[in-house]
Amino acid sequence: MKSLIILTRQVLIEFGNLLGTDTSRDWETVSTRSRCEGISFLTITLPDFAHQLEGCLSRGQARPSDFPGFKTSKSGHLPAFLQGFVSLIFDRNTGKLLSEPSSEAIQAIRQICLLHSKVEMPTTERRERRAFKQFIECEKEMYAREESDREGHYGPLRPIFTLLFGDICNRLDRMLYDLDDAIVPKHGPGSTADRLGSNSRWLLRTWTSRLEEVLPAWFMAVPNEKWASIFYDGSSLLEPGSEPPVRVVSVPKTLKTPRIIAMEPAHMQYVQQALKMLLVPALEESPVVKDFVRFTDQVPNQELARKGSVDGSLATLDLSEASDRVSNLLVLEMFEYWPHLSAAIQASRSTRADVPGHGVIPLTKFASMGSALTFPIEAMIFLTVIIYSIFNQLELSSSQYRKGLNDLRGLVAVYGDDIIVPADQVHGVIADLELFGFKVNARKSFWSGRFRESCGKEYFNGDDVSVVKVRRTIPKSRQQATEVASWVSTRNQFYWSGLWQTARYLDSWLQKLLKFYNTVPSSSSVLGRHSAVSPR
């Protein structure tokens, strides 16, 4: 922790020098509270300060109650912590946003406070248990919704879904009916529920009767006639009640909360990847939806967020528990017109989950993080609800849908749970997302003021106020290859963000750790420091 505190001090000093602000008292606060409160001050308390700042920017006003746990300045309107920077953004005497707030000060506060917000480290057992409990509670909530709204609840979305994805679904439905050679299964990089290694998972000995009906093993899992006899002699088709569940696990994310994912069995992963490779390119190449849904290029979302920060025309939304709140009943109803595609999607979906401390439970959700189909399916569902909501607010008839869709190009974008919508319709969109079971993260969603964030980029009034975040703990030796590579990347990010003193500080430390630490071109895959001056 000492090294992380020293890095915070270095960033604090550099921004103080850049903006002519005395940060000595701020350093005293960081040093004292880190010793008393531990690493949670760096990874939880300081990030909360930054998030409160973002809320004040949206509201145009800072209040003492906005920064709990921090002393108030003598004026009574701003926090005493980082007061030199905060007073470049808000009026000392009223707390109101200045007519020309400093984007550099906004970036300074965010960089100092968010520096360690994403360090991957194990959380406490209590927080881990709470995360698993939230997974169960989300399931119960979704189940209750489905039981009360089972008849016709999702029907109004179907015309919009068909408008957006009908051509794609028609083509894929035919391919699955024909068992087209373009259907190529593969394994993903993640671990599997059955704990098979990267090589052993290719020797599939498990298949299910659900898969056999739509994607038979002889087509998907058997490479040649010789292997066919081995496979069918040593394998059995599992009936639905005997299929293995996904294995729900927590993986390090931040100290505040772990990331909950579901490891799929190898045979499910194998088929999911095949369907993903059909679905994602079809969505990205579709003339109807390619401007709205993306999976590989985040830049359009980032540019729209920048535009929204300038003219206020666009809102950025973030969803909580996005993957876990996509109902399988909703997916079934949306794909109902394409029986072969729907059957393949359902056959490759695990229906039960093994949750630590709770046993094996049936799943109401379509799939958690871990399924290769989660990302594309959720994007299709989110876009459907958004377009449905906007069309309703504009009171468009079905004959006006195609023109209405064209008018929304450049105004709506979906990248996972990062969503861009017109600010004029944002409240209706939020209401409809929540109507269909989703939860908007108000803390990370912005539609008023001049701050916007999407896909890892943050803007204030068109200025990039994005920050560098430490991702790994400090390596103790160069044998910790992942940590070393992460810290070299962090150094280079500091360099390109203009924090050269901080980059030089990390250079001095990395040079001692690494035997060879040379300047390399930014396009090089070799581990080394970047420089605007080309290396000889």
Summarize, please.
With 536 residues, this protein is of the alpha+beta class. 47% of the residues lie in helices and 10% in strands.
Question: How would you characterize this protein structure?
Answer:
The protein is an alpha+beta fold and 536 residues long. It has helices at residues 2-19, 24-37, 40-59, 83-86, 103-114, 125-148, 158-178, 209-214, 217-220, 225-234, 266-285, 299-311, 328-334, 339-347, 374-394, 401-407, 426-435, 481-496, 500-513, and strands at 206-208, 236-238, 246-251, 259-263, 314-320, 352-355, 359-362, 413-415, 418-422, 439-440, 451-454, 457-460, 463-464. The strands form four sheets. A four-stranded mixed beta sheet has the order 4-3-6-7, covered by helices on one side. β11 and β12 (457-460) form a beta hairpin. The longest helix has 24 residues, at 125-148. The model has no long low-confidence stretch (mean pLDDT 91).
Q: Give the proportion of residues in helices.
A: 40-55%
CA-based gyration radius: 26 Å
What is the mean pLDDT? 91
Chain oligomer state: single chain
Largest sheet: 4 strands, mixed
Topology, number of strands:
13
| Structural class by secondary-structure content | alpha+beta
Distance between the termini: 37 Å
Count of helical stretches:
19
* Overall geometry: globular
